[in-house]
Amino acid sequence: MLAGVNFFPTVSPAEKSAVQFFDEALDLSILADRLGYSSVKIVEHYFYPYGGYSPDPVTFLAAVATRTERIRLITGANIPAFNHPIKLAGQLAMLDNLSHGRLDVGFARAFLPGEFEAFEVDMDTSRARHQEGIAAVLKLWTETDVVWNGTFHRFGPVSMLPLTYQRPHPPVFIAATSTPESFVWAGSQGFNLMFIPFTSTNEKVAGLLDLYRKARLDAGYPAGSERIQMGIHCFVDTDGDRARRNAAVHYADYVDKMASTWEDYMERSPSQYAGYADMITGMRRKTLAELEDKAQVYVGTPADVRQQVAATLEVFGDVEPSMQINFAATPLSDARRTLELFAAEVMPAFPAPDNGVAAEAAAATAVAAASVPVTASS
């Protein structure tokens, strides 16, 4: 199966220094490459213990590119609202060349009010900035003498160098959470999709995925040609009770950091983020056991996790888990064990989709999983 590693730093300097977090994330990226995982993804966020260690995904992924051989690199995701399209297009094109075409580009609207305030960007313009920024970047990658007269940026004529290694451009993913318009728009444009299940019910998320797939079909894109990545927390151990006990501590810390980052600004209620306050409140109420029951996290023994993976595939269809394995202050040894056990005892149970990326990843997994020993439990 296609499965990736998703780095969303949720640590403060008091818990882990930046250098420790990056050293550990690079260690895990190298191991993921050896074990046959399909991708490494990292977010763009600022200022807070919730995501703040990753203001520039391109920098981290460039470091991963020099230390790995085949794993794909995903910006998960860049934020057009906070970046000039010329700068963003140039950075990503460099990374695509440095990695010899291993880049997948994810874009997101962003949702933390404090970030919008710091960049002096009105949250109610986020959707328009998001869509205009993506269109400008794609135009810069695919045309010469580009003239852009948008609502938020004007430039040209310019011809971007370097060209992207992948032509006409790297695969594009759109991050969507709970707004139907975001899922429909992503599908209508033929983009791939990134989503997270634990912010809502499985039924609601499945309905949003149906909207996305229908919009792709209505726009003329072939059925099954999409790639859908699912962000999900993962903690695997040979002892299921120990896995649940340790994961619960780190997950509670993750949710607390996320909620506290948003809650300071809830009274502003940006019009384009209706429902986010309820989403945060709902996340605070969900226990890890409830999430496990709905297969909205992967936690337990390899046998437990195989059942959870099967449940998500049944509900959501063909999706690629993109797993947070070092959320909050998870020790490196636990994250490594999760990667090793999942590769050795979970991935082989699920056939990969019939496409080139999947075939390459599956072949690497079969070889690597047999050669890398599983870290002993502690």
Automatic annotation (TrEMBL):
<keyword id="KW-0560">Oxidoreductase</keyword>
<dbReference type="InterPro" id="IPR036661">
    <property type="entry name" value="Luciferase-like_sf"/>
</dbReference>
<dbReference type="InterPro" id="IPR050766">
    <property type="entry name" value="Bact_Lucif_Oxidored"/>
</dbReference>
<dbReference type="GO" id="GO:0004497">
    <property type="term" value="F:monooxygenase activity"/>
</dbReference>
<protein>
    <submittedName>
        <fullName>Flavin-dependent oxidoreductase, luciferase family (Includes alkanesulfonate monooxygenase SsuD and methylene tetrahydromethanopterin reductase)</fullName>
    </submittedName>
</protein>
<feature type="domain" description="Luciferase-like">
    <location>
        <begin position="7"/>
        <end position="313"/>
    </location>
</feature>
<dbReference type="GO" id="GO:0016705">
    <property type="term" value="F:oxidoreductase activity, acting on paired donors, with incorporation or reduction of molecular oxygen"/>
</dbReference>
<dbReference type="GO" id="GO:0005829">
    <property type="term" value="C:cytosol"/>
</dbReference>
<dbReference type="InterPro" id="IPR011251">
    <property type="entry name" value="Luciferase-like_dom"/>
</dbReference>
<keyword id="KW-0503">Monooxygenase</keyword>
<dbReference type="Pfam" id="PF00296">
    <property type="entry name" value="Bac_luciferase"/>
</dbReference>
